[in-house]
Structures are given as C-alpha cells and as structure tokens.
Amino acid sequence: MQNTSPRTLTPPGPSNPPGQSRTPAKNRRALAKSARQNARLNAKLAERAESMAVAAVKPPEQLLERLGSGMRGLDQLKVQVRQERYGRNEVNHDRPEPAWLQLLSAFNNPFVLILCFLAVVMALTDIVFADPEEGPSFKGVVTLGVMVLVSVGMRFWQEYRSGKAAQALQSMVQTTTAVTRQNDFGDPVTREIPIEDVVPGDIVELAAGDMIPADVRFLRTKDLQINEGMLTGESLPNEKSPVTAQEITASNLLSADSLGFMGTSVISGSGTAVVVHTGSETYFGAMSAQLAGKRPETSFDQGVKKVSFLLVKFMLVMVPLVFLINGLTKDWTSAFLFGLVTAVGLTPEMLPMIVTANLARGAVKMSKHQVIVKRLNAIQNLGAMDVLCTDKTGTLTEDRIVLERHLDVHGTSSLRVLRMAAANARFQTGLRNLLDRAVLDAAGPEILAEMDGAYRLIDEVPFDFSRRRMTVVLEGGTAPLMITKGAVEEVLDVCSSVLVKGHPHPLTPDRRAELAELVAAQNAEGMRVLALATAPGSHREDYSVADEKEMTLLGFLSFLDPPKASAASAIEALRRHGTAVKVITGDNELVARTVCRQVGIETDAPGSLLTGSEIEALDDAQLAEAVEGTAVFAKVNPMQKARIVEQLQANGHTVGFMGDGINDAAALRAADVGISVDTAVDIARESADIILLQKDLMVLEAGIQEGRRTFGNIIKYIKMTASSNFGNMFSVLVASALLPFIPMIPVVVLLQNLVYDLSMLSLPWDKVDKEYLAKPQKWETKGLARFMVTIGPISSVFDLSTFALMWFVFGANSPDQAALFQSGWFIESLISQTLIVHMIRTGKIPFVQSRASWPVLLLTGAACVFALVLPFSGFGQSLGLVALPWTYFPWLIGTLAAYCLLTQGIKVLFIRRYGRWL
User: Fold this and answer.
1) Is the C-alpha dihedral spanning 246, 681, 701, 396 positive or negative?
2) HSE on the CB side for 914, CA within 13 Å?
3) What residues contact 377, with CB distance under 8 A and at least 6 apart?
4) I need a labelling partner for 846 at 20 to 30 A (CA). Which of 141, 412, 507, 780 fits?
C-alpha cells in the first residue's frame, strides 16, 4: 500500500511546509503565469465550445449552408479561397533550432562564460605584460580555450545528435484523408489528399484506422467508434452518431456524440463528416498554441545557477584580497597575474565538460535500454525526481480492452455466457469493435472452432445508436437462435425473463433491482458492462428490430483495460527508491480507482483521490496541501494536469510527468522531466525531454538509477574541486600575507589545475555507493557551502604545515629560495588534492569499504606521479620549479597520511551531524 503522506514525499535535505517554495517569489510568478495561461486557454476553449455547440445541434442541411458547403463537397474556387483565408491545416509546433543556434546556446553556461571572461583578461594581460623580445605566450589562454571548446563541443554534439534521433521518430509517410470535392464539371469526386490541405466546409469520408483531420460534425455514421484517449485520457472508445441531445459547453465539449476532433482516430465503423474548424482553430490547435515558447527552468538549471553564484561570491571576495595583499607586499604586476590565476583556481574549470561527459555517457547507456534523451539535463532531473506523475492508459494498463468477466444473472462466472457472446461476435457481418475482439480473444480458438461447426448465420439486426444493441440469428440445433448483445438497459427493455439454473424465470421488478445492483457493482470497479440475451427464432431470413422481444437474459459481459503485469512491481520499485507515483488521468473516477487499486496505489483513504471539478474549486494554497496526500487525480483537463505538476514543484519536489496524448503536452512541458513514447502524438514528443521506445514504468527504474549515478559523479567533482580550491585559496591568502615572494608560479597554478581536471575526466566512469542510489538526489547550494567551509580548511592545515616545513626545515625563507618553496608546495598540493578525490567520492572508508573504478584509480595515480616527476624534469624546471632533496619525501608521506586520517575523521563527524555526505 502506498504511503502518500507529505513526509514520504519530502526530498532529502531541508524541507518546506506544503505550499511554501524554496524560491517562493519565483514559484508565485510561475503559478501566476500558469493561471493566466489556463485562463487564456479556457477562454479559447469556451469560444470553441460555443462554435462547436452550434455545429453539434444544427440540422445537417442548415450547417452545410452556414459553412457554404454541401454533400457534393466544395468546388475548386471555394477550396482556393479558403486555403488563402485559413491557411494550412497545421498547428503550432516548436521547431528545432538550426545547428548554429544550438552551438551558440551551448555557450550559455555560467562556468563557460566565466572561463571565457578570464581567457579574455588573460589574453590582454599576456599582450600588455609580454616580454618585448619573446612576445606574448598565450599558454594560459590556450589552456582555457581548449577547456571551453571541448566542453561546448561535447554538449552541442550530444544534444544535436539526440535531437536528430528524436526527429527520426516522426513518421516519414505523409498522412492523408479521404475528401469529397467537386471536379471541374461539378461532379463529386472522393480522393485522398494531405491532411494539411483540408479546409472548413470539406466533406470527409472516415473508415477504421483513419485519423480525424480537423474538428468535424458527423453527418452520417455506421457503427462509428472513435478513440479520443489522446484528448480525454479515457481508454474506451466513444460511439458517435449524427445527432446529440446534450447541451454542449466547454466542460463537456469532447463528449458530444455528433462531434469529432483533430488528432483522434477511428477504431471501427465508418462515417461522413463536414469540417468545421482547421489548424490553430481546432481544439488541438488551441492547446498547442499555449505550449510554444521558452520552457520553464528545471531544478537542474536552477541548481547550476545557484552553485555558480556561490562560487562567484567566493571569487569576488578572495581574488581582490589576494591581489591587494600581494600588491601591497610585493609588486603589483605579479600580484595582478597571481590574482588572475587565483580566479581560475577557484573556478571549477572543467565542470561544463565533466557535467557534459557524465550526461553524455548516461544518454548512451540509456539508449541501450530503449530510451532516447532529447535534453541532457533531463538525466539528472530523472535522478532527482521524487514524484512521478503518470497517465493511466498504456502506462499502468495494457491499452487494450479485455473481457474481464462473463457472469450469469447471479454474478457467477459462466461459460455459457462466454459461448453465446462469442457466437454473437463471431457471426456478425459488420466491422467488429474493440469489445467484439475482446470477446473473441477471451473465447479462444477452441470455442470459436466449436461455434463455426455448430452454427450458421441466417440474418442479423445491426447495431444502431438509438437501440444500442445488435442481434444475430443463427441456425443450429433444433431451432434458430437469436443472440442479442448491447447496453444493459436497452437489452433489459426487450427481456421478459432471466435464465436461472438453466430455466427461464420471469423478470420481476425485484429481480430487475437485483440485476441493477450487480451491474452497479461492476461499474463501481470501473468496468464497462454489456448485457447478453437470447430468444428462439423461426425459419425465415428477414429479421428486424420488431423481432427483438420476449427475450431471456443470460448474463453480463464486463470489460476493462487491464493493468500491466509489471505495473505493480515497477511502482513498488520506484517507491522503494524514494519516488512517489501519482496518477493523473482524464478517465473517470471509477476506472481510475479500480486500476490504481490493482497496481498498489491507495485510493480508498480520505483525500487520496481528487477529481477535476474538485481541483477547480481549490485555490493555490488549498491545492498545495491537497497534492501532497492525493495519489490519484481523475477526470482532469490538460491545464489542470499542468497546474498539479506546477504546484508539486512549488512545494519543493522535482516532478516527472509521463504521458503520450495531446492532453498531456502542457504537463510534459511544465515538469522537471517530461517523459513520452515514440508512438505519442507529435506535440507530446516535442514537449518531452525523454522518449521511451517502450511505454513501461520498468524502463524508468533503470533510467532513474542512471540519473542518480550521473548526478552523484557530477556532485563529486563539484564538492571535491570547490572544497579543494577553497582550501588552496585560503592557504594562498596566508602565504601572500606572510611570504616575501609569490607563493606559487602563475603558470604552474594553471598547469596544476589542468592536470587535476584531466584526472577528473575519469569520474563519469566511477562507481556510486548503493546507499546513494536509494533515494532522490538534489542540488543543495547551502549543503555545498557547508561542505566547502568544513572540508576545505583541512587542506589549508597541511598546506600551512608544508609552508613551515619548507621555511624552517629546508630554509626556503628568502626570495632566492622561492623556487624550492614553490616546488615543495606544488607536489604536496597536487598530490593531496588528488588523494582527496578518493576520500570525498564515498561516505565510506576509501579503498577498504568502497574502491573507485579503474579509470579513476589510473588517472589519479598518473596525476600523483606527474606531481612527483615534474620538478625533476627539464619541462618543470623551465617553468621555474627545482628538484627537491630526497629528505623531503618522508615528510611528504607523513603529511599525506595525517591528511587522510584527519579527513576521514571529519567525514564521520560531518555525516553524523548532517546525515549525508555527497
């Protein structure tokens, strides 16, 4: 049973009361924007409902006259005029940006911009302070330039390639529709034309498998059933007829019997319709118009900005201090150069590259599991997701109708009822709908073969919308047999008896009441119920509706879109890993409650289910509280779906939304990570961040784990580098104030950062502790600052001990011995900075309880070897370093051992105090 309490849904770290955001001003603005968007859409849909209401109830002749059309179709002149007036029958879609714009957008990263700025300043410095004979070297500029280009190039290529893969999912076959138009001689001709060429007033012919090309009014139907799930979220098809008795408003527009809408499809039957609205004037178009434009920032985007601002704040304090102290105690030129490299040292230069490498590797791994990542940042959001909102149809269910029960009049499973229902479905000559196919599937080949051998079709009375039943008359046995299947009330109207223990008994009012209770119980479980009745026939071949009388009720057929076998285990797995599942569906309350109960989602507790009408009555504060404890939202419209997602985000959650219909597009766009499938409508695929090639929650389980692993390796780099750089810069401040020379050669600082960062390129291949993968992980700027000021000073303690060692033991206490001092600190600083990788990457004891992956071990080991060798090499000495005496290295070993022990001790205390490490 799902625990839907706010406590369960609260993400790790500082929590917020319901309705209170971590960035309340931003969330208030987001909710206000959503409210305005909702109001605009409701106004547009109300306008559309008013127009379609007229079309729904107006007699066909008057509607055709109003549209300037007729059953013979439009002539070519009218078509041309209307194409010019209304444009192509297309809706607004977000178009992919050209490659050059995608490349420029890859530069829009705070760390990339900082590095670009520092590269420009460094270039100007190289020019101004260049040696007149040798000229500017631009070594630092080249180093920073390579970092920027590699990072930007990797991000651009991965997102460009992912975008191409997503576009490839689009159908390459042009969709057409059958339209009747007049030829040059005024004769009506029906032919296939591209859907984009349809105009208002066109007469369209529809058959099973066709997509409805625009918003239409049906003029003629024959057993026409339409799948409107992409708009409504309902799993069962809707029957359509040329007339509707209900009053049409914005709230019930989609349920009008005589109307069809763009994007829906014909399941069975046939029909003729006149086009009322096309393109952006359709219901689909009204929705998609609200989704164009810039996407809202996700938690990943906000997290990167917060980390960037935090590090910039440190830079704004530290760099001027270093510059002033060195300028006042040494010369201002050296102070400026050293201040500049201090800024570089405090910036995690490789963060864009490390992030991109992690995300790119995650995208490649996920692609092997039939997952296409359109936007790289979505991988991290998937790992941070603590609430998954999903539609019901096709995700929790099989997206197919099955015969769940075949019951006699007592509610007991009856093989006789199944056999008679199979005979009815088997021998009808019209197009079989989904319910007929479900009956035949349930019967199986043995029963169907038996039916073929036992009966022969004499006649049938086809289904129509007025009587809502159909009858076949079969010859077999001693006398012909009439078998009628249809809506419960309509079948009961022609029954005079019920079959009890093989014998007919009168259908009394008391027995009718008992049957009503039985049907109500089936409906309460979300099932669609049909009744089945039989009557003896006579030897003739001209049966009619008048013959449907004095029948005997055999029982009932209950249909349901069944839950997927994997749904319950997938939901339980998500819950174990800290991700609560909430179902948001356009289907009715009874169906939603039944399916959710079957997959283990609590729906019976007070407040566990909300309907769209109830949501509409709540203000933002009330909804903020309600969404925490509600597990199922039923009969909701598209904007209500988006509002639920946004309110969960305002409560501090990272929200994923999984859907594939037109009615899901707004929520997909609003979510931190939108998840769709390759078979979804275009607008849903465009709005999604991740596309699944298999619509199954089990696929998401691996994706979430990969997202958390990716985020873990990203946060490792940030915490390692930020704390190490913070400690180094604190050491620089002390050294700048006390030493009579620059504590480190500027170009060596850049080289040290480059070597360290190159070793960090192995992090995307590092392992992550299982405990870290067990719950959602989020950006925490406050936690990062706390980590920096706790762990950073540890390195400063041993930097200062190294200063003392070089000053007092090795006599590097004057400007002419500066190179010896700088060489000693370089080795200790780079090796300790690299060793700290293994201390920080896990909350456990490194090398004993948790060992890094081989790429990390090899590259960090190579960095340590480089630090030891460089001062002894010609290259290192050309940079200003000098060889160290061998007596230095025992001191170094003692320093590093003490450093690791102290860090491990502080780690234990930190975890005990704050409950987490990374």
Assistant:
1) positive
2) 19
3) 298, 300, 301, 359, 689
4) 780
pLDDT at 430 over 60: yes
pLDDT tens readout for residues 391-402: 887 778 887 789
Helix (H, G, I), strand (E, B) or coil at 600: coil
The burial class, CB within 10 Å (0-12 / 13-18 / 19+), for 426 is buried
* Nearest of 8, 1, 7 to residue 580 by alpha carbon: 8
Rounded Cα gap, residues 236 and 226, in angstroms = 9
Q: Give the per-residue pLDDT at 802.
A: 93
**What's the pTM value of the predicted model, to 2 decimals?**
0.70
Contact 95, 298 (CB under 8 A): no
The pLDDT score that the predictor gives to residue 2 is 37
Q: Give pLDDT tens digits for 850-895.
A: 999 999 999 999 999 999 999 999 999 988 899 999 999 999 999 9
Q: In the beta sheet, which residues pair with residue 632?
A: 583, 609
The 8-class DSSP code of residue 254 comes to G
Average pLDDT, the chain: 81
Q: CA-CA distance, 530 to 406, in Å (whole number)?
A: 10
Q: What is residue 11's DSSP assignment?
A: P
Neighbouring residues of 185: CB distance < 8 A, sequence distance ≥ 6: none
Dihedral angle, C-alpha 121, 122, 127, 131, nearest 10 °:
150
Q: How many C-beta neighbours within 10 Å does residue 58 have? A: 16
547 is an active site residue? no
pLDDT at site 203: 94
Chain segment 633-681, per-residue pLDDT in tens: 988 877 788 889 989 988 889 899 988 777 787 788 888 888 887 767 6
Residue 801 CA, chain-centre distance (Å), reads 51
Assess contact for 393 and 312: CB atoms under 8 A: no
- List the helix and strand counts (H, then E) for the chain: 32, 23
Roughly how many angstroms between the first and final C-alpha of the chain, as a whole number? 31
CB 896 within 8 A of CB 835: yes
- Judge contact between 810 and 820, C-beta under 8 A: yes
Q: Between β-strands 188-194 and 259-260, what pairing exists: parallel, antiparallel or unpaired? A: unpaired
What are the distances in angstroms from CA 320 to CA 317, 325, 743, 918? Answer: 6, 8, 16, 30
- CA–CA distance, 507 with 495 (Å, rounded to integer): 7
Dmax over Cα atoms in the chain, in whole Å? 122
Q: Is the pLDDT of residue 355 over 80?
A: no
Query: Mean of the pLDDT values across residues 33-58?
Result: 70
pLDDT of 558 > 70? The answer is: yes
What does the alpha-carbon distance between residue 579 and residue 486 come to, in Å, rounded to a whole number? 43
What is the C-alpha separation between 437 and 401, in angstroms, rounded? Answer: 8
Exposure pattern of 179-208 as b/e (b: 16+ CB <10 Å)? Answer: bbbbeeeeeeeeeebebbbbbbbbbbbbeb
The single residue of 223, 257, 386, 391 carrying the catalytic annotation is 391
Could you give the C-alpha distances from 372 to 157, 365, 410, 678, in angstroms and in order? 15, 10, 51, 9
Q: Quick one: pLDDT band at residue 11, thresholds 50, 70, 90?
A: very low
